[in-house]
């Protein structure tokens, strides 16, 4: 994963464009440069600022139908810009390094969406064009000549995440927020009751059945503190969802693991902004018995636990998460899927079969009872009629 972070992490793209936006845009295309100068503060040190989120829609409106030309006008490009001849003797116009950086900043914000979650909570979805194989600044740096290809890149608005998918990410984040908040409430209410349902659930996923009630209560305090941190991230208005354009082709053998993943993060030590990289498998829940909605919600809680709590992937839910059979209690406390499945269980979001499956794993899962054939009603016997003649 290190080579991905060193060259292609979104936090690096974010900081690069943050520096570009700190300098005012000159007055080439009045509506666009005015909007960009207003948006210069949208990229704060801790993430996007929701105060300026509504202006992103204005930016897209201004660019609509003239994406490439409006961006080129805004960065001060004209036919009188730097020119030279290529190896075939053809006259070629070149964007300066500064113009490329400014064009990339405009293009990036054009593909940033503020998605409403609930109340005063919003998230951000960065949906760059599907054809890109790098983040925008690197995609435009590949060639500085203003060729038809370069114009096509600026004109391309066929985004990786559809509007429907952006809404799904928002709805799943809201459900994650609701489940985490409800689990916090349950822990606060029954922390001191050793016979409560929440105590049994903590034993099922974190503590194990053999430890004392005091140990369970200690674990509950740790879980409560961790869930409050997860809740703070969701409610921070700073959470960003994007994908890794570098993985869209899946050509590199070393990257197959990430290409086939549901989602991943680099962690708070590597990225100070909370960023979740969502890959194509996120929207395909056919491989899980949770179903679409819970699969998405579980993934978001799972990834945020990586981000803020530094959890690991000691075991995934389909391998079995039982602290009595598969994980030591200290491993369960540091296991991402344990945190997310615990929230689902606490909020009564799983069936008994799902609980058993995730507790014991697919190798020890309870056998599925064969279907009971329908009972066929017995037909009353018809008395035989004698063929002998009567007396």
Structure report:
By secondary structure, the chain is of the alpha/beta class. Helix content is 46%, strand content 8%. The protein contains 16 helices and nine strands. The protein has a five-stranded mixed β-sheet with strand order 5-6-7-9-8. α3 packs antiparallel against α4.
Quick gist of this model?
The chain is an alpha/beta fold.
Task: Specify the number of helices.
Answer: 16
End-to-end distance, in Å?
101 Å
Largest sheet, described in full?
5 strands, mixed
Strand order of the largest sheet: 5-6-7-9-8
Radius of gyration: 28 Å
Percent strand equals 5-15%
Order of helices and strands: HHHEEHHEEHEEHHHHHEHEEHHHH
The helix content is 40-55%
Topology, number of strands: 9
Shape: elongated
> What would you call the quaternary organization?
single chain
Parts with pLDDT < 50 across at least 5 consecutive residues: 85-91, 365-371
Mean pLDDT: 83
Ordered list of secondary-structure elements with their pairings:
Elements lengths: L1 H7 L1 H12 L8 H9 L4 E2 L2 E2 L6 H9 L3 H8 L8 E3 L5 E3 L3 H14 L1 E7 L2 E6 L9 H6 L6 H8 L7 H28 L6 H11 L5 H22 L5 E3 L13 H4 L3 E2 L10 E4 L13 H18 L19 H5 L2 H11 L5 H9 L31
Parallel strand pairs: 6-7, 7-9
Antiparallel strand pairs: 1-2, 3-4, 5-6, 8-9
Helix pairs in contact: 2-6, 3-4, 5-8, 9-11, 9-13, 10-11, 10-15, 11-13, 13-15
Defining key terms:
single chain, 391 residues, alpha/beta, two-stranded antiparallel ribbon, 9 strands
